[in-house]
Amino acid sequence: MKKIIHIFTILLFISFSANSQVVTSFTKRFQTTQKGGIVYLANVATGCSSNPQTSGGACQTGATAVAPGGTANNNDFNQVYVDVDGDASTFQSSSDSLALPNCSQITWAGLYWGAMGNAATTPTRNNIKIKVNSGAYQNISADNAQLNTTGYTSYHNFKDITSIVTAAGTNARFTVANIPFVNNGSSNNWG
Known about the structure:
- The chain is an alpha+beta fold.
- 16% of the residues lie in helices and 27% in strands.
- It has one domain.
- The strands form three sheets. A four-stranded antiparallel β-sheet has the order 3-9-5-6, with helices on one face. A three-stranded antiparallel β-sheet has the order 1-2-10, with no helix packed on it.
- It starts with a helix and ends with a strand.
């Protein structure tokens, strides 16, 4: 009987793993053969305050915890738009800096953004803003927009920004703004 239960459990596991859902198949965005590496810049659209890195208290502790050693998390904080630019024309903004050695060359750059929301709750999700250093914002629209309606309703967008990044050079600060998410001010949101 024990052997039959083990076989049943294995077959049950195989049947669940064979029916996983693919929302959109992966495709190549860029391919090249060259020496070099990949550099990621990343930031958030939501946080426990409009500037969680400097907010103090449990919010700052949760926002700055580094895995795997950090024990804080921000799962239960009400999420609001992070807005670091002080610009009244944006409702959300966050930034990160690119700092490459002087001999570097930028071959390709892609911007990916996403959050909880759908066409009704985040109608402007495909059009956001980007600026380099202290320059002016420019409007950009997604080259590819994916809306997911199974599980958590969310969107995931992509824009090829190679021309913007190469024009900025190997040391620049990029600020992205106006990434909408649903339910500003409630918990368990992301963007």
